[in-house]
Amino acid sequence: MLPIPDEILKPFEAVMEQKTIPLALRPHYQKWLRYYLDFRGKYPPPDSKSDQVRLFIEKLRSKNQAQNQLEQAAHALSLLFEAQAQRNLSPDNSENTEMKPVPLSVSPFKSENSVGSASMATQKNPPPRSGRRYDEMRFREKTQSPEWDKVVEKLEGEIKARHYSRKTLIAYANWSRKFQCYLKDKAPKELSATDVKVYLTYLAVKCNVAASTQSQAFNALLFLYRHILKQDFGNHTDIPRAKRSSYIPIVLSRREIDAVLMRLPHPYSLVVKLLYGCGLRLFEGVKLRVLDFNFDAGILTVRGKGGKSRTVPLPQTIMPELLAQLETAKTLHDKDLAAGYAGVFLDDSLEKKYQSAATDFIWQWFFPPSMIYTHCVPSRTIKEAKSPLDF
Predict the structure, then answer these.
(1) pLDDT for 264-279, tens place per residue?
(2) Using an 8 Å Cβ cutoff, are 83 and 23 in contact?
(3) Residues 271-301 pLDDT 10s
(4) 300, CA 20 to 30 Å: which among 210, 239, 356, 389?
(5) Three-state SS string across 325-365, please?
(6) In the beta sheet, which residues pair with residue 302?
(7) What are residue 211's phi and psi, to 5 degrees?
């Protein structure tokens, strides 16, 4: 296998430095880059750069590479693309070849035989998105402390066994890694309640974090001590608390809501109408399923945090649009079945593959900072059912 040319390696190393990739991991990133260049040399590359990366990841999967290795390889390629963008660098030194990041709406980890959508399969040139998806599971990367790596691995398994959300997994695992870094890889078996007190005090006093941030760190470490380390967490009533903000939330008027809805394309407009009309959290809106709609009674079952459910009134003004969307989805599903696709996505996989894209799009279209959009509609009975969108 040939070495990496300097005109590719040096900009790549510069980007790794910019992104503060740990020194221990940089040889692994260079390894993936070398493998990718070798792969491009052995196989005639397709015109689409996203197809090149997809084929490369599939090749790694065929070699029984672990999922975290596939994610690390994909992240290495995203750094290569950034290096190319900064230095106008092309891996094959061709002036006519332009490297572009892989659109994350086309997952490089998806098997060619996996369940798919007929419309997604025919979609061309989807809009590029940020590389955040590749960074979400960075806590899985190995560090200089094998003991801590095992602790985080056990924490991930415990959270999944309890069916906590993916966001909770990422938040708790990242706080565990930050705690590890702050303690400079102190052996997990030597941790004490004092370490927690010192760290939470550091967050409030030195880092000036928000109260919600300190609270999340507290809950993450409580879970770590109680369920993973099996150690005493302590009381910690004397820990300095981060100051809670006292700002007045910004809420859009009904006129402003209508103006925004008029400018949203379908089907995003329908999702936003449900968010406003049913008082849903963002993640609740993108997790809705057909079985949650009771059109006869005019209510929607919302499956929220912690497995809790509530019922809210369906907006009568969008009933025809909802029914039309269901017919569209049914037609698409029938086409998928006719094309040989069959099966369902598990909730966790569904969240991983599609929720991030939908959430990002809706957020940047609609929600300004501090806007309240949940708990606006209380749980109601069938007799009381009425949505604010109907007023």
Answers:
(1) 888 888 888 999 888 8
(2) no
(3) 889 998 888 888 888 888 889 999 998 899 9
(4) 356
(5) HHHHHHHHHHHHHHCCCCCCCCHHHHHHHHHHHHHHHHHHH
(6) 310
(7) -60, -40
